[in-house]
Amino acid sequence: MKTDKASSLFRDISPAIFILLGWLVSFLFAVIFTSQLTAFFGIFRLLPVLLLGGLVFIAALRLFFRWDEGGLLADLRQRGSVPAGTGWLNWAGWLVSLLVFFLVILLPLIRWPYSPISDVLHWDAGAYHFPKAIELYKSGTYWDLSIPFGEYPNGFESLLAFGLLLTKDETLFGSAHALIALLAFLSIWALGWRYTRLPGGLLAFLTLVMFLSGSVMIANNPWWIVVDQAFVIGKNDLFTAAVVLAALVFAPIGSRGQPAVYHLPGLAFCTSLILAIKPVGVYAVLPLWLPLLYRWGKSLWQREGVRRILLLIVFSAVVTVPSALWIPRNLIVIHTLFPPGVWEYNEWSILNNLTNPYFYNYLPKLFLFVLGVTGGLVVLAALGWLGGKAIKSRQLNRWLGLPSPGQALALLVLLFSFVVTPQTAFYGSNQQPTQIGWRFGVALLSYLFVLLVVLGEPIIQKVLDWLNSRRWTMLAGVLAVAIIGSGLFWQNRDLLRIYPGNDIVLRDQFREPVGVDGYFSAYDYVRRNIHNSVIQIEHGLMYYVYGENFSNQPTKLHYPLGLENMVAQRDPQYYVTFCANFWTYQPEDCPDYLESPSFTERWELIYKDDYGRVYQRR
């Protein structure tokens, strides 16, 4: 093809998308960093958050784009433009990817709850994620550990609470999840763009196909969990994975034969985010700092550039330490990092069950696939590292893009981070067949996808060269991208529908009326009749008893798990309980203690249906 206007038109779109990633990371960092500081000092209010957050955001942007410590930005600027002749395919990849991702992923999330996604609130969201956000919004502090898992970090919840400060309701909850999904997509794409020399539009299209593959096929699909987690409102697993993947983008890990450049501000921002979101993410992110710590320690030992190194250390500490303020909070309040009840969840991790026979009773094919591919990539990286005439690694690299040792080590770190995460092997009991918790492995699976693209880069490049050899073959490639993208859109077209009635998910756990006397359920009775009261709730979701304008104060009276006596518990005026299975929505027998004299002497029944009961203190 003699001319290629599309190549000229779109040659700068990839740097622009990377800039978007930088803006997004900086914004999320500013919001959550500011929230941690203000919540620690008890001033999480609109004005302090906006003023301090605005300053932090401006500083973060300047640092991200003007301080290229590590040389990553300079390295990406030197990357060549789209190869001549592939511009039309690159154009098609970008157009299809951005349009379909916006329509199928971002728009339904932004519209939530008026879209078909998350029509039933996940238990964790209603039991503690949403309540933690509401408590932060109402109290302005995160020092109250009496709410469920109040001792956990609250980075995800502070993002939701920031939306509450702006709108005073859940209007921006869906938008917050849209930003998380966008961060995941951009981070996966950026890893591919950094590790390969493939056109950015093609990489975006491949990322889109992987991201949405779970909406087309789940069986034998390693990446089905990605889109599944994108549509789970009120959970932080995708957020954790997205931040880990973003940290890998900025880490000192390069492709084979390329310098291990990095970007210190980006890596520091992501480390700060992961410290505030989920502790287990530290297993994946902290090892990324080891090469830098080694270099800095060596320079200090040799007394070379001491002032510069100290500046880098101080900057890293200032950015990351405030996001770990929940650690001294826990040590002050409950005298331990986590209470005993939380540590019990570690018993259900893969790592803690390697000697458990039940773990091997049923090993899913996907788990074996991940282990096999991971092992294969590590072997290929070792072959490339050893080099030499004996294994002819250069000839092998002509057919396969051998991963670098750094990429292989990062993959192993992600695998370790996955297997050490609580509840990755079992849930509830480790005396049953294995139940792999893939929602904790999104980062591992996504990075595996990126390295498979790296592995296939030489083959993909040969296909691109063939497509570029004739005009009709390139047009056929463009048509194929358009057809696949249209198919993904058509498969998910129902997500564009608007369901006004789906706002019930914000008010009630049940989809159909289960109450009596005109009430939808026991939750509805509470919302309509009880205000500005402390309500103890058992076997139900705290979120739904806050009532209008979050006026009530829910409590469960047994948090922190195992150390509830160390925290002042709220004195309940009402008691709400449900005799139903949350997962099947079928009524069950109520516990006997509800009929015991010790209970009835204190509590008077004021509402009852087949599913729930409401009591008032006598």
Features:
618 residues, mainly alpha, five-stranded mixed sheet
Describe this structure in words.
The protein has helices spanning 5-10, 13-40, 46-66, 72-77, 87-111, 123-139, 155-167, 173-195, 200-212, 224-230, 237-250, 264-277, 282-285, 290-301, 306-320, 326-333, 340-343, 365-386, 393-399, 405-420, 442-455, 457-469, 471-491, 522-529, 597-600, and strands at 534-538, 553-555, 574-578, 603-608, 612-617. The protein is mainly alpha-helical and 618 residues long. Strands 2-1-3-5-4 form a five-stranded mixed beta sheet, with helices on one face. A hairpin with a 3-residue loop joins strand 4 and strand 5. The protein is globular and about 85 Å long.
Rounded average pLDDT = 92
Number of strands: 5
* Count of discrete alpha- or pi-helical segments spanning 4 or more residues: 25
**In which order are the strands of the major sheet placed?**
2-1-3-5-4
- Parts with pLDDT < 50 across at least 5 consecutive residues: 1-10
Q: Span from first to last CA?
A: 85 Å
Radius of gyration (Å): 26 Å
Q: Beta fraction of the residues?
A: under 5%
The secondary-structure class comes to mainly alpha
What can be said about the biggest beta sheet? 5 strands, mixed
Helix content: 40-55%
**Overall geometric form:** globular
Order of helix and strand elements from N to C terminus? HHHHHHHHHHHHHHHHHHHHHHHHEEEHEE
